[in-house]
Amino acid sequence: MPLLWLYKRTMTFGKPVIMRLLQKRLKNGKEDPNRLPERFGTPSRVRPEHGPLIWVHVASVGEAQSMIQLISLFLDQNPTGSVLVTSITRTSAELLENRLPARAFHQYLPVDRPKWAKRFLNYWHPDMILWAESELWPVMISEIGRRHIPVALINARMSPGSFKNWSRAKGTAQKILSAFSIILTQTEQDQEYYKKLGARSVRTIGNIKFASLPLPYLESDLELLRNAVGDRPVWVYASTHAGEEELAAETHIALQETYPNLLTIVIPRHPERVVSINESLEKYGLTLSNRTKNRIPPHAGTEIYLVDTLGELGLFYRLCPISCIGRSFSDDGGGGHNPLEAAQLRSAVLHGPHVQNLRDIYEPMDRYGAALCLDRPEKLAPALRQLLSDKESLKNLSEKGYSFAASQKEILQNVIEELEPLFLLAELPLLKV
What are phi and psi of 205, to 5 degrees? Predict the structure, then answer.
């Protein structure tokens, strides 16, 4: 395949460029300096000597959270088994370290370079692979296919733009996709795209984020926060991206006359942006306090509480009766983040119009009345005002969100049934729910 060959050659001889990019990411805090060799396929821990090893690759914390139930089932039913979980971002690595069960561990996915991919696979030699990311790294996937390792692509999605691009290199796409024994897509449209590109054994099972367990939290932290907040009206803008922190501040100001003691909590998706966020919020003249690593609760005069820590969404969804989900009004064109995490914890869900990456979740939620879509940023303040003043409407929205999230739990059973051929290929015992 000429394009695949060209890509491999580029990644082979492009090492100086790759190293410069990694150094830039390192400088910007996007790479872990203590674990950089993992990005070259060099392990930082010893491979388990006994029992089967499953490799699970995830795109983000969201996919990881969705896969934890599956990982736990495998480990419970295979006492000598282990699970290697890979991801790319520091955020996902730090959160996974605290959430993975015993006998499951994290490593960074190596950069998609032939020598590094081979080094990684030669060391870990997994018995089976579950790839829960729609980003298909050609070198790694091709190397997996060459070794005939049983592998499934889970939670697969493909945008119209990606399908159009892959269609221009259909032969290359078919070659890469042929490595997968099974492909489980989020929607029927995704299934159609993958089939048109030559994929085999494609099934639609829905979004595995429906299978996620409720996000964890510390009861002691929740008690401290509830004591600090008291009877103040409070809402959270979760997983914000550029432009949304300013929207939170503007919304707070718009509500001040009605709710002078309102507390607005902002949780950026990427806490490393905290310095620029603080600077952007200064112009509003609001009293701002940061949670920081010391987990400092908001004081009585705090108006904007910036949660610049990782892994605490579960805590704040439990604290706040209303959640606006980020990257739905953001400057980058949006895409949306997972609303089910808030709905599972009975926090009423609001969101903007730009949720195209999770349309299969948002659209049925909106139709069912389990979430409230606001088509313009200016509508956020009136929506919050109405919900904060009308407890019945707030309860109705939060209960419908909870009911919707709970109604989709059968997806885990569907995934396990669809993966049965893969377990047979890997000569592993079938999972039971």
Answer: -125, -5
What's the DSSP call for residue 132? Answer: E
- What gap in Å lies between CA 433 and CA 428, rounded to an integer? 16
**For residue 210, what pLDDT is reported?**
87
In the chain, what percentage of residues exceed pLDDT 70?
A: 100
Contacts of 11 (CB under 8 A, 6+ apart): 18, 111, 112, 113, 114, 139
Active site residues: 63
Please name the helix (run of DSSP H) or strand (run of DSSP E) that holds residue 314, with its range, or none.
Answer: helix 313-319
Residue 2 has pLDDT above 80, yes or no: no
Output the pTM of the full model: 0.86
Question: Residue 25's pLDDT is what?
Answer: 92
Burial string for 285-314 (b: 16+ CB within 10 Å, else e) reads ebebebbeeeeeebeeebbbbbbbbbbbbb
Assess contact for 195 and 202: CB atoms under 8 A.
yes
Structural domain boundaries of the chain? 2-204, 219-407
pLDDT digit string, tens, across residues 272-284: 899 999 999 999 9
Distances (CA, A) of 41 to 21, 122, 326, 399, 425: 17, 10, 34, 46, 26
pLDDT per residue as tens digits for the range 318-337: 999 999 999 999 999 999 99
Instruction: Look at domain 2-204 and name its CATH class.
Output: alpha beta
Query: Tokens 């005069």 map to which residue?
Result: 301
Contact present, 8 and 139 (Cβ < 8 Å): yes
Helix axis angle for 411-418 and 61-77, nearest 10°, is: 60
Q: Which distant-in-sequence residues (6+ apart) come within 8 Å of 219 by Cβ?
A: none
Q: What is the pLDDT of residue 1?
A: 52
The CATH number of 219-407 is 3.40.50.2000
Task: Name which of 325, 300, 180, 337 is nearest 247 in CA terms.
Answer: 325
Region 230-242 average pLDDT: 97
Local structure of residue 433 (DSSP, 8 states): -
Mean pLDDT along residues 338-345: 96
CB contact set of 133 (below 8 Å; sequence gap of 6+): 57, 58, 59, 63
Cβ neighbours for 369, distance < 8 A, ≥ 6 positions apart: 396, 397, 400
Residue 153 to residue 202: CA distance in whole angstroms: 9
Fold match, 2-204 / 219-407: yes
The two three-digit tokens of residue 279, written as one number: 């600077």
